[in-house]
Amino acid sequence: MTLTERLRERISRAFYNHGLLCASYPIPIILFTGLCILACCYPLLKLPLPGTGPVEYSTPVKDYSPPSPAAGLHQGDPGERPDWYVGAPVAYIQQIFVKATVSPWQKNFLAVDVFRSPLSRVFQLVEEIRNHALRDSSGVKSLEEVCLQVTDLLPGLKKLRNLLPEHGCLLLSPGNFWQNDRERFNADPDIIKTIHQHEPKTLQTSATLKDLLFGLPGKYSGVNLYNRKRVVSYTVTLGLRQYDSRFLSSLRSRLKLLHPSPNCTLREENIVHVHFKEEIGIAELIPLVTTYIILFAYIYFSTRKIDMVKSKWGLALAAVVTVLSSLLMSVGLCTLFGLTPTLNGGEIFPYLVVVIGLENVLVLTKSVVSTPVDLEVKLRIAQGLSNESWSIMKNMATELGIILIGYFTLVPAIQEFCLFAVVGLVSDFFLQMLFFTTVLSIDIRRMELADLNRRLPAEACMPPAKPVSRSQRYERQPAMRPATPHTITLQPSSFRNLRLPKRLRVIYFFARTRLAQRLIMAGTVIWIGILVYTDPAGLRTYLTSQVTEQSPLGEAVLPPMPVPGGVLPAGDPKMDLSVFPSDPIQLSENQTQQREQKLGLETNQHSWAQGPEGKGNGQTELGTEAEVTWGAEDEEIWRKLSFRHWPSLFGYYNITLAKRYISILPAIPVTLYLNPQEALEVRHPQEVNRYHPFLSPSRGKLDAEAQPGQTSSKLQGHQDVTLYKVAALGLASGIILVLLLFCLYRVFCPKNYGQNGLSHSRRKRGDLPCDDYGYSPPETEIVPLVLRGHLMDIECLASDGMLLVSCCLVGQIRVWDAQTGDCLTVIPKPRPDGKNALDDPLENSHQLKRMLSPPQPPLFCDQPDLTSLIDTNFSEQAKVAESEPRLRSVAGRQKETGYDFSSLVGKVYEEHGTSNCRSLASLSAPHGQAGFCGAEEGGCASRRRSLGDESLMGFDKSSSLPSWGGDLESSVWSLELQGNLIVAGRSNGRLEVWDAIEGTLRSSNDEGQSGITALVFLNNRIVAARLNGSLDFFSLETHTSLNHLQFRGAPSRSSIPSSPVFSSGDVVSCQLTHTVSCAHQKPITALKAAAGRLVTGSQDHTLRVFRLEDSCCLFTLQGHSGAITAVYMDEELGCGASLGVISDNLLVTGGQGCVSFWDIGYGDLLQTVYLGKSNESQPARQILVLENAAIVCNFGSELSLVYVPSVLEKLD
Amino acid sequence: MAAAEFWIQRNVTLFPPDVITSIFSSAWWVPPCCGTASAVIGLLYPCMDRHLGEPHKFKREWSSVMRCVAVFVGINHASAKVDFANNIQLSLTLAALSIGLWWTFDRSRSGFGLGVGIAFLATLVSQLLVYNGVYQYTSPDFLYVRSWLPCIFFAGGITMGNIGRQLAMYECKVIAEKSHED
């Protein structure tokens, strides 16, 4: 065994086991695979959407200068610098990030007070920014000079005309909602409405106006009625045309001085450059669309080939899901390991799909589907997997090799593609093995269930005599039996042929699944959900408030900041130092800075001094103090914006960012603390009526000590309620999840899943050698019936439909009932005195039964042999017997005609009459008359005597038979059976005719000396092929002695109507008619006769065709290069030595210890039935096909009776 | 004849736009010419198969053909989009890809030979066009030939042959069925 073969076997075995596993535990495996997919796809959440996602690059603020416009002149190391970082950006974006809060918060404040006064300060801030100017030696530089001047808005945006700046600096702030007019703001009764009036109601894809003006995502702004943190954030966004570091740092320091942010930890080192991809135009789309069309054509043509499964669509979907999720997994895994995809995902995607391909999936499906249908599902899966394991592994290795070669092209793009493809291939393999195989097993199981369901009505309309259950298989089924396979099969096949046109099937599919209805319902639900979620006053804000509520109740616990109104809290000295980044600013704005610094220091000391006593004071009338915190979540707040934020902003001014970049400067933090008086001042009169006080139902005069505690307990209680709500929601969703899973389980999982699990595991290879695939099927449904009784190896076998005759090496002939497997007769009969101790009790009981039955010969010895009429149905024999007298009265005449077994009953009786008139001398001896005959023919004496002894034994059990010794010496080499006559050819050249039921010798012929190797018994003609190559043609003639008429009495005959009508009284003589002395040079091994022709096969490598009547050799067939071992002739059903045909498209072949069923039309192996379980099982030497789809074969010393209804049913 | 018409239509639609746009400026007669040429190629392959008497049996399925076409488009796409360090690398990569295409989907010696012949002829024709000043390469790099042209033509020939063979097989099958019915 070469290495390849060993590898191959190992792979196939591994796949087999894997297939068993997958088919046995489908649901856990699918769940596991789904989890794997999700886990691998998780990193994808961090990726921007492919295609249009912007790319970032950051440079330090310190000594930043715009990159040179020339493409080739990169400073620094070019590896890090992206290609697009060339030339000046479209704009520099400076955001001033404002966080404002009303502090201290008073209990009687309204919810609108949270944001109304902070928003009101934006006008002041904007004025400060707008009027900022840098004065230095070169003159005065104002904002107007450095800012990005925008012109008209696009014509389509008329309604935004008042909200976005035109013909001036690009400066956006929430104040734009009120045209930067403080009076308008003050006159606005409903701020929320103003802000949200331009919000789209549906799912927003691009940046909304609120986002644009606030400069940060809406949920961070804090402008809503449920803002429990009471911190309002917004930005003032400034677009700059050029980068003037001195101007910007002066602006920064001035704003920081005016509105210091003491605990701000925002990093300010980096400028982030954001590059935007080009927007895809029609021209670029054409190749993309082409590739996608090709891709879909490929998928269509591939999945079209899936056949013979329950749901084609389901499997096709599974295949596509396999490929797609393997791609996603590959991207996810690559991202996880730090390989960010730079290729355009949409473009390479079709190629990846094509490279990964659906082939394996299809091959798997085909292979599994083509396994024998009647195997168990898990075994089918396992076999199918195992069959294709080698090709799958080979293909995968080849593809990996090709991709590896591609990896060495050293072109970055191709390398990246190859990397993705490799990971994709591996994950695709993983998914195929786990996901698709499991889905396939589920599908096939469903198909079998559906088949069963479909078959039930077909069986219901069967005639009731048809056996339904397997247990009835071995019962004796009379003549109706052979017809049943055809009746069974017609109906399902007619169902199957009913093929609807495709569009009708599509419509039926829609109608059956109510697909459209369900889609509409699902769509509606989703739409409603989106509406509810995006509704500004709706669920989302509620949820946000719920979440923010959970933040630590700092308000109540924090020490109150005793800062008087108007005085700003100052940062620590460290912060102050950072306020002055460069010297010129310090010089230019020296005075103010000095003053501010002094003030800051003062307040600092003040606050430090007042801190402890403030605590003790308990400034309860001021309520809780708020502190604005700057955390990591505020870092680069613009990242949380939609990536279409900047393109859409610039798009309003007809400035495209496609293939260009903008530079976003670090935000300037501004913290505003507003005192309550201010908040009260800006309050709109209408708001007092409209809004309830914020968190203060107990606004009245409350005790100083009681109030904070009450508030906190209130908060606590509220939190508890929230906790309960969350718990209840969690519980409910958990229950729903469990129910859903249960439903899924019920849908997917068959009822009997997991009953036997892996209990019948695979048998070891080598146990059953006749295994084409290298693995053994399980115990098949077809259990062979073993006929035991022979002491030695069975030499030959013959059968007509009902009886089965076998002969072993010692010359013992046994007659079996082919239906039940009962042993009817043993020839020669065992000694009745029990000498034959080797006979098993079963056989003895049969013997006894037969012996105890009343002996027929004296009564029926003159009846004709009706064997040819009774070969199938015993129940009809009674009728025949009843009709005898009638027929006999007709058969009065006497004629000299030859006996013909195949003639009708009437003819038989004519013959009967003919033989009656023969002379006594020519009679063979009937029972009790052996003595007369013995004197006549010397040659036949011993035979006669033995016959007599045998028949005597029927009534006289005590008599012993000495005459058997001679016959036992020669073994039976060939055997034929017709009717109840057994023709046996012995090794000493003797031909014997036995009665199968009686076990009596009817005739014999000793004319030849050479052993008879093969026999043919057709009608009344016997052809014997001898060892020396000669052929003897015998004709069988039956004579009935007249004298038996005397013994026969009419009443006694009618008294036993149910007894068999075999007549042992007929004298059967066997006469040699022709001899072909040298038919073959070597022994004849095979002999078949049909349709008046006789075919002989010999060891001399030739076949000859003889005419049966006159033994004339018609043809000599040459061509074989070896001895002929078996001959099969088409006309006869099931005559092959180890080959037989059942119905018209099923072939049975014998193998080593098994029989295999083949479909002749397609050449497929349908099933292999093992006759034994032992290792030393012998080849099935001979196969006979009985009429009722049963097969008899002999192997070793045993016979096997196989009934194959299932194969026929499966065949349709 | 009908089959030929069908081929022309099909091949015109399938001929990737990259080649057309990159080799030629858009003249009205170029796409029909390309379509006709590819139709001829598509006819040539089954004819040659019949002449040689060895019907092509390797992977005769529409899905395989679709895969082949997709790979061909991918090769075009790559040659147009991917930035290669130099032209030799580009040419070598494309040549390897083309050979790989042939190995994956064709594997017949006749197909290879015909593909090489087609590549040679087509390069010659386009070269003649350029010499006569009808067209100009955007940047001739190697011996005044865009070095990737033969590779693309070769791959195109293989692809067209694949389609043609598949269609021919289909036609054969239909004829066989019809005769069988008769």
Note the main attributes of this structure.
heterodimer, A: 1212 residues, alpha+beta, 7-stranded mixed sheet, 41% helix, B: 182 residues, mainly alpha, globular, transmembrane (chain A), endoplasmic reticulum (chain A), transmembrane helix (chain A), lipid-binding (chain A), steroid metabolism (chain A)
Any overview of this molecule?
The complex is a heterodimer of chains A (1212) and B (182). The longest helix of chain A has 49 residues, at 412-460. In chain A, strands 1, 2, 7, 8, 9, 10 and 11 form a seven-stranded mixed β-sheet that branches. A four-stranded antiparallel β-sheet of chain A has the order 12-35-34-33, with no helix packed on it. In chain A, strands 13-14-15-16 form a four-stranded antiparallel β-sheet. Chain A has 37 helices and 35 strands. Among the domains of chain A are: 3-46 and 305-453 and 502-531, no CATH class; 54-66 and 82-280 and 635-689, no CATH class; 781-828 and 1132-1211, no CATH class; 970-1039 and 1066-1090 and 1092-1128, YVTN repeat-like/Quinoprotein amine dehydrogenase (Methylamine Dehydrogenase, Chain H, 7 Propeller), CATH 2.130.10.10. About 27% of the residues of chain A have low confidence. Chain A starts with a helix and ends with a helix. With 1212 residues, chain A is of the alpha+beta class. Helix content of chain A is 41%, strand content 17%. In chain A, strand 3 and strand 4 form a beta hairpin. Chain B is an all-alpha fold. Chain B has a domain at 61-181. Chain B has helices at 2-14, 17-23, 30-52, 62-81, 87-105, 109-131, 149-181. The model of chain B is unreliable at 1-26 and 138-144 (pLDDT under 50). Chain A binds chain B through residues 286-287, 290-291, 294-295, 297-298, 301-302, 304-305, 347, 350-351, 354-355, 357-359, 362, 402, 405-406, 409-411, 413-414, and chain B through 14, 16-18, 61-63, 65-67, 69-71, 73-74, 77-78, 81-85, 89, 92-93, 96, 100.
